[in-house]
Automatic annotation (TrEMBL):
Protein's name in the database: Tetratricopeptide repeat protein
SMART domains registered for this protein in UniProt: TPR
Lineage of source species: unclassified sequences, metagenomes, ecological metagenomes
Membrane spanning residue stretches: none
Protein species of origin: marine sediment metagenome
Amino acid sequence: MVKKSDLKKLNTIIQEGNEFKNLRKYNKAVEKYLEALRFVEEKVKEPEEREVETTNIKSQIDQIYSVEIIDIIETASNFINNNDFDNAYKTFDEAGRIADKIVDKGLRDYEVNEINYIINKTKIEESLFQAETIKKEEQYDRAISMLRDTLNAAKEFYMEDLESELIKKIENSINETYSKKVNLLVEKANQLKVSGDLDSALKTFSESLKLTENYYESQLKDTEITNLISLINQIYSNKVKPI
């Protein structure tokens, strides 16, 4: 049996650890729980009782690490929202180091898997951001190539959920990039039409229409096809000579 005085001392140490945990001072909380662990190993003589107490304390230490990981992931998410991927990855590394300290194998494996999942998802989001940056620089062909690579990675990642929000976001970005190319061709075709070169205008409008075959199904695709067909029909109407 543990002496009442020893039990009171142990509860005080654990309570101090809980207070540090609630204040998110995780290192100090762990220090207190380790102090409690040493106290149990020294004061509790009954092997079975000592085993129960040490197991309970180790479990609570694991829970502190788990809560700390949640806070670290939240910090990483803030970096991602600001497109600061380098610091996000550094933060994920910190989360991984904390996860490695967890004693319980099941909980440790769970945390490591969750961290790796978020890292892989972040890599896809980073690739999308890089492609969007290239698109803003009007390097449309390069942007499309990067976006398709990103889409393939996303489909492999979301193998069981091909309707995921991120996949749709990438497909929309591909559509928007092709739309930029279409708009450039339409502008060129309109200039040719104004200059009276209807054959070249028709050819350029047709090239624009051909590009829409690369779009993923969307309202944008339907709208642009309708508009381009209308523009092509106008050219044919202008080419018909009056009797």
